[in-house]
Amino acid sequence: MPKNASKVIVKASNLSASYGQHLLWRSASFSIYKGEFIGVLGPNGAGKTALLRLLLGLNRSFKGKLEVFGLPPRRGNPRIGYIPQRRPVDDEVRIEAAEFVRLGIHGSRWGFCLPRSAKGERGQALEALKLVDAADLAHRSLGKLSGGELQRVFLAQALVGKPELLLLDEPLANLDIRRETELVKLVSQVAASQHVAVMLIAHDINPLLPYVDRILYVVNGRIASGKLEEIVTTKGLTALYDAPVEVLRDSHGRVAVLGTEEAAHHE
Amino acid sequence: MSNAFSWNLWSDFLSMWQYDFIRHAFEAGTMVAVVAGVVGYFVVIRRLSFAAHALSHIGFAGAAGAVLINLNPIVGLLVFTSGGGAGMAVLGKRAASRDVQIGTVLAFMLGLGVLFISLYKGYATEAYSLLFGEILGISSGDVVVTLIAAVVTLLAVTLMYRRLLFTSLDEDVAEAKGVSVLGMNIAFMLLVALATSIAVQVVGVLLIFALMVTPAAIGERLSRQPLKGIGLAVMVALICTWFGLFISFYQPYPVSFFITSAVFSLYLIVRLIQLKGWTKRDTINLPISKNKYSQKTS
Question: What is the ipTM of this complex?
């Protein structure tokens, strides 16, 4: 049984999502519990991002039942922190990281920030940066940060509003193997210390292996949820893909999936 | 004006101030500089400088058309720039950064303006002042229009400040946080339209960059905090405008020339200083490869 089984934060039953006219996946039923670390896997275009957009209330074209914190999904939910899939930041952007993180607090409000509360906001932003081990980046320009540094700043911005659920869309893209591992470790530590549940979309399961509680596998118009050992197996994935797929494990416990389109990329 | 400077610049200024047209020029120039600095900052961080430049050309067609049918050119400017701005915003932020399409529309509008001007049998100076600005010809009525436009723009920016900044820097997250990105884009492009329309009086359609973009770019380069950047942008725009007006009182050359030269010199100085100081400290180390697998092959 997942930890904190009593505290369901996301509940989907018989959920279907489409993108325009195109049906992405259907009859998905899963729950996400407080403080869980969920890896969201699956091939390109399967509808992983669409799943996050549903939870954020950005995509309303779904059928079935979806509850986020017990309510229908709505845009601007302060209990959710979000890192969208990012393109690299233009190196001409001079705004400092602390100001960028600050936007996560009251960036969506109207009007100006009074000088008194501005000071408080900057304090909160610095706290959030400390939390992700990026206090030294506070006054650096966004455009001058490396891919790994940027992801930490994005993470700080997502955390600064004290969310209970983090939705991270491919935060590992554009990172080298060592930075991938570091970032996943950081996310997992912060999530544990702040009691935040995480849904992290990744292409490769391996960096997530030591930390992930459960996975959602989005493929072939369906979403399978469960423990890694239940889903990422030769039998499980062959059934999901409806094609011969083989899962190998090396002596470190790392996983290689052969026969899928992702495997081709890893050659 | 063929007088020369005296050694006492303040008394020079006071003698200048006796003329109505100089007072109007300083009043309108000051308001335009403030608005251009504020709005320009967002133009720069949104990477919309070419779109802003194009808007002023679209405005040229409107102004020339207004002159042709005996309206105040500012009316034509406002109508055309607002229409153009709203159009760009509705087509999306990506459309607003497509330079070929924007350039095509820009050229067409400039051509349309030329036609209107040639149909107008009045003075050729009208075209000249639209293209290059004629701040010394500003009437007290124009000053009032400028004041209203400036107040509206600044109030709107104050009201939308945080949302404007959020959507400028982080559109996707802002949208997820409940900000209407399209609404903000439309509102912002209307502000650019308003700012452009009044700035045309000072530097003209062709030189709009000098007030709307370069001072803001200087402000943005010199500060990593938005409010400070905006403050610096306003200061640069103000100093350059005042400097241009002051000098031109004694020189037979156009004000626009002095304003644009001052702005250009400041920009050059800032770039040169930063070239020396920055290359060593912050080397750019963003991942060059867009292929996310290329680094995992080890």
Answer: 0.91
